[in-house]
Design brief:
The complex is a heterodimer of chains A (215) and B (97). Chain A has eight helices and eight strands. Chain A is α/β, with parallel strands linked by helices and 215 residues long. Chain A has a single domain (3-204), classed as 3-Layer(aba) Sandwich (Aldehyde Dehydrogenase, Chain A, domain 1), CATH 3.40.605. In chain A, the strands form two sheets. Chain A has a five-stranded parallel β-sheet with strand order 5-4-3-6-7, with helices on both faces. In chain A, helix 2 (20-40) runs parallel beside helix 4. The longest helix of chain A has 21 residues, at 20-40. Chain B has 97 residues and is an alpha+beta fold. Chain B has helices at residues 2-7, 56-59, 62-70, 73-96, and strands at 15-16, 32-36, 42-47. The chains are: A alpha/beta (215), B alpha+beta (97).
Chain lengths: 215, 97
Amino acid sequence: MLEGRKAQFVDELMKQDSTKAQAEKEVNLCIERFIYYSGWCDKFQQLYSSVNPVASSHFNFSVPEPTGVVAAIAPQQDALLGLVSVIAPIIAGGNTCIVLASSTKPLCAVTFAEVLNSSDLPGGVVNILTGKVAELVPYFADHMDVNATVFCESDSAIQKMIKEKSALNVKRVVLYDKIKWADATGQSPYFIMDFQEIKTTWHPIENIGGAKAGY
Amino acid sequence: MAKTLIEKRLEILKTYKIYIGGKFPRTESGRYYVATNAKKKTWPMFAWVRGKISEMPLLRPVVPLVAGVAGLHSTADKFCTALLKCSKAAKRSLLMS
């Protein structure tokens, strides 16, 4: 879907001060990034799961599970690539997200919403808002139904506010202020793990009358 | 006269809405803003979501729903399938172009 709208995205990025070459590179990178994360969807669980040795008669294992609802304030500069790089790992991990698009460069974000809407992604998995960051951040961080907040700028006052408010309602805070999205370091399964909780299960196994454990 | 009118045709710009719960509603705040680029060229208007009478109530029906489904691996799989499908389509057209 993204590919079909490539021309439109390139055009919009150019309206947002990118050159044609930069814009084309960014759109291609976005598509590749989506392919990258979709590949991880059914694989990261195996990497980060484990069967744990325990002393009692239990089968003990740990698996990553989605955090839940993630509120993200998308990067202001990399309007499309930043947005995709933030959204993709969140939904690849089975979370849902509410994203505040770049307020100075919102054009691509809204078009991207149209792409998502026609990509058989269930409604409500990705929600995209436009508006001013400083005004909306407190509501993102305060909201009791939101389980994690992502902030991508280095504005220390806002970072502090998010941390304080999130401490009150025990919300995860993820700061991506030093990430260069266009680099190879801008994609990694660890971005998926930022929005996963490790859940450990103690499964009792047969141990009758002092007999040794068996399945 | 008619000719000047045509020459001076005003571009009808789209007013962009927000995307919540698979729909494109108008912002409850009723406010919109215009973004500009370095050349001071303006683009269509964008919904300006406000906190107080915000879209947050709008999100309310979505949030518990998504919070509920987010915990289920089966639903996670469903998202993944959609994502995979999406990227496969992208890859196909990438190979073709």
